[in-house]
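WARN no homologs supplied; continuing
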Amino acid sequence: MIPLETLKKQHEEICDLVHVLSLLVPDERARKSRAVENLFSELANLVGEHLVLEDDTLYKDLLVHQDAEIQRTARNFLSGSHELKRVFSEYLQYACHPGSNQEECEAFVKETQDVFHILQERIRMEESRFYPLAEKA
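OK structure emitted
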């Protein structure tokens, strides 16, 4: 059984953290704090767990489905999942920390906005296009 409710719950948790971090990252003192560092760690863990759960459940079932359209859609989303993993892990390596200079931190704030937009768009696409397809399958 595909755990769509679990995946949707993870989306909620990811979106909550993205919202909180979006408010904190622009503030110089906040973004260099241990609290924000911990929130980023929690976000990385949630995103990683979510992608693994999708890999182990949704893709596993849908990539071998008898309907070629379902297989194609699953392959497309899986490919996007791999790209998201790569982008997100690269992004986290450049987090702003107490030793960062002003330019590095400004670049990190901009990158944060871009990565959060990608995450939110991915969640929107999964919930509007992919999960309904998985429910039908």
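The chain has a mean pLDDT of 89.
OK
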